[in-house]
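Regression report. Comparing outputs from two consecutive submissions.

Submission 1:
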Amino acid sequence: MQDINNNITLPFDLKIGFNKLLNYYEELEKNEDEFLAAKARRVLKTQENSPLLREGFSDLSYLKTYEKEINIILQDSFSQVLTKNEIKTATVPFHNMIFNSSQRFKTILEAAGDDYEIEIENMPDNDKYIIACNVILKAYYGYSANFSRPLYYQIPDTNGIIRYYKILYNADFIEVIKKDNTPEITEEDYKKLLDNFEDIALWKEKFPPNSYIAKGFVISNIVDITADQSISNIKSSLIVSDKQRDKRFMSSFKEIFRSFLGMQDLDVGFSVFNEREQLLMQVPDAGIQSLLLDLNSSLACEAVFCHNSYKTIFDDKVFYSNSDLELYYNKSKGKVPQVKVLYNQGYKSAILAPIADGENLLGILELVSTKKHALNSIVANKLVDVMPFIYEAVKRSKIHEANLIQAIIQSECTAIHPSVHWKFEKAARQFMLDSSERGDNATFGKIIFRDVYPLFGQMDVKGSSNARNQATQKDLLLQLLLVKKIIDKGFGNEKLPVYEKLKFQIEKFSEEINTDFKVDSEQKITAFFKNELDSVLKFKLKSNSILKQDIKDYFSKIDKDLGVVYNYRKKYDDTIMLINKNMSSLIDKKQIEAQKMYPHFFERFKTDGVEHNMYIGEDITKENSFNNMYLYNLRLWQLQVMCDMENSYYNKRSKYPVSLDVASMILVFNQPLSIRFRMDEKHFDVDGTYNARYEVVKKRVDKANIKGTNERATVEGKLTIVYSQKADEIEYLEYINFLQFKHVLGDNVEVLELEDLQGVTGLKALRVEILYSKSKKDNKQFYTYNDLMNEIKA
């Protein structure tokens, strides 16, 4: 006898039975609808002579004995109409044995192969036992431990690609029966168990193995989530720290992409773009190989691509795909470089995806296959969903580690804005209600706000990268000058070759800073200070009285934590910090009043400047009170606040350590959209593919140029309002006219067409001078930016 309870330890004996389902049919037999009643009578008659189907059995051989009867009993649960579409099984809790399933599930298992054994992936034995105890607490004692977790199958398809399936259990047809002599669970026991989830010994003490009976069956509704899981895996893999030093990263990354694109014959490469030297380079010290560069460490971009493909990737920054490399190789007689290098490595189709945000190209993602037509423009289109994550990951790797840590902390600890807190409370209450009715099958509801209007604005520090580089250069030159004085003095006293060598290096580095400052110059010169100079100076500090005071003065100017001169860079960093702090404080205070006018969602972010998102609409306020008047009011408020922030900054700019310019921009999006709270990322994001266009525009628009020029739409001293619809232009011109009357904006208004961005066309902008007020005692109270600069210079 093959017993279902063999080789499994649970607090209950499992029995397959259909009593609860048959009870349902007994009720259905009384239905006024004769068709339904007749069907119920047929099902009940089928089991009349088979009491074991109600009593339950653990001997699996009975599944064959009563196969016909079971199929009839489950006929409604497994509709033949949907059998090729639904992925559904009938089984028992915490067991991999399946005794009925839809045709589609059978097809999936057949594709996996005869040697594949289905198994729930994320269910350790101890967790399985404790979750089973929770089922007893809920079903028998009425206690809700509020415990649930997603369960998955990982099943390979015919090509060996792992596909992910989420399991949703329906346990309506399970009965829990306590055996004689089984101890009762008291309320004190229940409270103790709640605080000791990991204590398996305690759970087994309160729920001894096989002390209950679980009779019935569960229906598993299964959903293919391969695409979503692959995107999640891509995001997760890109977040992992130190991946450049982990040889396993690329291997894992390839497998994720194979699953995402559904092809086993796929290889992945990556190359870094060096904009200064127009080179494609290998990723250093990593298990990541560039297939375009093959064995070369770097190559000129024009040597890697033909003219058309160069324009596609570097100018247009769109995907390049070639579904038949062999055909193009033969047609061009091997003269097209990107085709030649890939074809000579045995590849037959390829996609090259620029890792860019519309203007800044960071590198190229290389996807290749040895099969013709496997990779093509249609497949390339699927990358649209993942390229933003890849871009952000590459971008993150180029900034300071502290910023990355701060971003992770912020993403994990984002607070819920008061305007939307009510919806989270509502969802939590519903979850508790569902838990009391459905137990572990209850899920936390989606948090979605529909038909809300977005507002976006930013005050951005202009030329922040150049300012940072200039501060770095000044610090390095100052430190080199301090060292040179010591070396000159030492060489004058002692004609040692080491002084001459150090002097040569100092002069060489000084020239590099002034004429050819590169990305790695700071790191190289800093290493020179720490690894070569410090040891010499510290030695001379102990042994040479002539240089002693000079060396002491030198070390007194060195930052103790960084080990370098940190003067100009500190001024720059302090300036950015103060700008962000002061501007954030100002808009936060203004927001308190704005919320009183009409509640809306608000969030702000500190970058090199301050940006903010707002969403307003009926779905956020939960009351039937929204009117477009409130939207118009918030838009006008936003314009005024942006001007207030500009005034606040420029009136205090002289007090900042470094004098920097800022530029302000507002993005107008006139269509309502939906936003959804992403539980895994702890923040709101636009919901749906169409709405995602707003996010694309928001990320790229501040880099847009005026059409036909190299001039940015955002400039200091002016407020830029970006839009796409004529109605928006008319509406905002009215606001501008009002603010001109209030002496907030100047008379000069520009109507501009903007150059198309990647995936974004038809953008326009209004650009208007901001008036700056200095002092009420002045005869002239309002200034344009140029007036203000002239006043400052005077």
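Submission 2:
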Amino acid sequence: MKQYDVTGMSCAACSARVEKAVSKVEGVTSCSVSLLTNSMGVEGTADSEKIIKAVVEAGYGASLKGEGKNKASSKVSDEEALSDHETPVLKKRLISSLGFLILLMYVSMGHNMFSFPLPQWLEENYLAQTLLQMILAAVVMIINSKFFTSGYKSLFHLSPNMDTLVAMGSSASFIWSTYVLFAMTADVQNAAHYMHDLYFESAAMILTLITVGKMLEARSKGKTTNALKALMKLSPQNATVIRDGKEVSVSIEEVQKEDNFVVRPGESIPVDGVVLEGSSAVNEAALTGESIPVDKVEGDRVSAATINQSGFIKCRATRVGEDTTLSQIIKMVSDAAATKAPIARIADKISGIFVPAVISVALVTTLVWLLMGREFGYALARGISVLVISCPCALGLATPVAIMVGNGVGAKNGILFKTSASLEETGRISVIALDKTGTITNGSPVVTDILSSEGFTQKSLLETAASLESKSEHPLARAVMQRADSEKIKVSEVGDFKALPGNGLTACLGDSVLTGGSLAFIKSKVAVDKKTEEVAKALSDQGKTPLLFVRDDKLCGMIAVADTIKSDSAEAVRQLKGMGIHVVMLTGDNERTARAIGKEVGVDEVISGVLPGEKASVVRRLKAKGKVAMVGDGINDAPALTSADIGIAIGSGADVAIDAADVVLMKSSLSDVSAAVRLSRATLKNIHENLFWAFFYNVVCIPLAAGCYTGLGLTLNPMIGAAAMSLSSFCVVSNALRLNLCKIYDPSRDKKISKKEKKIMENVFEMDIEGMMCPHCEARVKKALEEVPGVKGAEVSHEKNSAVVTAETSVEETALSKAVTDAGYDVKGVKKV
């Protein structure tokens, strides 16, 4: 995705106009414009010059993001781009406008309505008072000339925006009042009677109040990007690298890949790297949100912007510049802001036609009141009120401000949403599939039990096991070696090492023969007593792998190895279930081990014996139960992450998995999955609140401004309309900022997903089918099942002799059986899931 800076946009109608113009450029596959960050993301093969030309022709300005920056100024420029430039400018305009407006209001309303004193030469001279009002109003209009240049320029390009409404309302008030002034000069004797037809104060008040609203809105919008700005400020400016054997301080841009650098206690790590020498505790809160320091030793990876808290370390740079983890996080959050959430599409469509519709309503309102016999001044006031009270900005900002704040909250806690759509959809999932290894468990086996036989000690058992396993590359062998190393066990050199079929090892140690392996393998070599078999079975039932070791036909004992469950996994699963989400564990383990782990963490469903290539098809099958999220960390999880409605990658996992995912968890903690769902739901709720306010405001206020409620004694002065318009956008942005208070790790307010969002599971059938021999048989059965009326889809496997059928309506089991039988296969059973 190429990103562009867009200038000249003032409301949702502007962003809709830019998006429409760029989407017409040949080669553009998608375009998303953010009014919040004044940026545009474009995908496709279209040339940048053509895209910029389309934006310019639409009446706005555009340039490639980062164009003209050198590397040294890039970071500063990015921070500068997100800085609040609007508020100071609007503040100056507001102060100047208020000064002249107060004088105008004193003359027009203070004197005439409340008898405030005026100089004697002016007090009875109504013509001079009117002339002074016109001059003061004109000065306010000149100060706020941006509304007129932007508004009428957009009108000229046939794409009216919010500034057009303000400019037309203010201009109409001023022009009508000027006409009244000329009429007054022709009838000086009755000049006092013309005073109530003047709207100079409205012309100035409208502009000033809108400027107040714009300033409040700009200030609030500036706060929505605080999280992104904070991330940009984290990266250190300098690094201490080793050049020609000496320590040299250089700017961060000068650090090259493979450079060696040193970091002292209290300093920030400048780039991503690997520890070469030393050890330390590193605070990674900047990236993961976790405040507890992480111990780093030789060979461990370190990331830019994390803080070295204790020891001196020497590292080798592996990622520099825009490739560092911090830069990738910033890019991810920025890209997410540039994309558009599906829920925003409706508001965008309305915004595109909103302003022309409002101008039409204002004209019709004025004409209707004239036809009803009201004086022109009254009819004009109703039309102006319609123009200035209508607010397309509230509609346009309802979604992007909430998305930006939500993304910021996620980034601060190490939860990264790649797109606005992923932030919106994560909260709607009703099924979550968790890969066992590395997600529920730590992903690396460790020794859990050491049980020595009679005549052997734990130490002698571990010595025998470590000596035998020292030649093996198996993960279970590494677990035994790590335990031996931690207990400083002497490992002897063995000879004649062999890895035998049936999960066994043999080797010679001096005159002794060492043997190790599974219970079944050892039983084939030596006699194993019943008690040992029962213990081995009990360990297997707990999800552990018992390894038995023999020395010269004597059983030394048993060592159990297991991939331990993460400390927060059970609580994370409990929280997900508390949200009404169906939790499924996927694993390649045998059914007994899988069920033991599944029971311990409390998942709803365990699917065991899943080969790496089958995960994607299992995820597709689960989609019959609702929107599915897949959580994984390995390369083999990438297809499943892509197949799911939402793919969630553990941050410490493979780059391929992270690339394939929609959400990335930097802390590698399963509790962050429930936090991501919680944040998504809070953001979606906030968007709904904003959209409701925006629609409600316009639906109620436009008829009120038009005078539809005059029968109830309700009318609206144009100045009140302008004040209401000013506050509407401010309210939307302020409501979005409430997301910063969201407690994403607090499950106390969790609600189960609604039935509307959770698909009914009663129309899913599992079938046992015999006779399928090849993929052609699968296709034949699939076709037969999908031709049954009411069947939505069927997943068929000749290897498992099964079919999973999803039906849109209630389907009889007999109809499914008949379809398969007629196709030439045998049905052994059908059950509704």
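Expected: both submissions complete independently.
Actual: both completed, but the second showed a warning that disappeared on reload.
Relevant detail on submission 2: Residues 68-77, 755-762 have pLDDT under 50 and may be disordered.
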